[in-house]
Model the fold of this input.
Amino acid sequence: MVIMLAVCGVVFGGVFGFIVFRQHMMKQFFANMPKPVVAVTATAARESEWREVVPAVGTLQAVNGVDVAGSAAGLIRDISFQSGQEVRRGQPLVRLDTDVEMGDLRSAQAELELARTGFNRTQTLIRSNTVSQSALEKAEAELSVKTARVAGLQAMIGRKTVSAPFDGVLGVRKVDLGQYLQPGQAIVNLQDLTLMLCDFSVSQKELAALGVGEPVRLTTDAWPGRLFEGVVAAIEPLVDARTGMVAVQARFPNPDRVLRPGMFARIEIIRPTGQRVVTVPASAVSYNLHGDAVFVVRTTAAPDGKPVQLVERAVVELGDRRDGLVVVRRGLAAGELVVTSGQIKLENGSHVEVSSETPLGGAAEASLR
Done:
């Protein structure tokens, strides 16, 4: 029994000893194993002049836009345009049937000539006291009536031709040849796309930042990444008592006609004065419930004297975001190198190798001015 217990003790002691020895060697191996170097990109935080903006959402409309309609009824005899065509002011679009009116006009013109002849004859006779003054007045009144009737018929015939009220681009035709057109019935939509207006609303607390002529920027989903520059054209003098909002209208040049009426747009009203702030690319920020942070690259000396780059997690307080940049109000100084990509593999104290320093883009720099 004693021998058996001794043998068991030696066997189990050897097993436990081997396990303890193995764990010790593994800990020593991992403790002495060099930390992996993570390749990242980084850029320096910069101090720039930052102008705050007032955001809003608006709707675009053309400076001139209307559904062209006729003011007289009649049968469409001629259509002088195509859908999508560019037209000039006064260009005829639709002509209605005027056969009846032209007949009435010729009859009225004949009566007018007869009335003019009678008036001239009466004027000649009154010089010789052959007719009375009342006869002359009656002839003059009859001439005026006939003249007015001819002018009325000419105006009625003129209304039978529908012309473009301003320069612009036509939409889709809404009538057909031979169709009977009612007064006020839409023929085609006409829009002047050279200048666009945008109607939007801002809070009354932003009135101090508003002024006619102040610069405004516009972006749309139809043209992502493109920025349109404009100015504030008008500010509604009345504040909506229910919402506390103020209606504003901005004007945007549209020389290439890419903006269209009815588009939704995001508006940014740029404040006239700015302040010096520290900015970093938005990709450098790691968002977390415990606080937003950035990884700052620090250069330190290794035990062998060689310089190494480590990252330090810095909790920051963020401000406005615009054009791929974010304002850092607290927690970061200008000039510090922050990681812009590769943060997923990092933790506090990780070794890194900056593969390339990505400077701020020219467009982002221009937006800060």
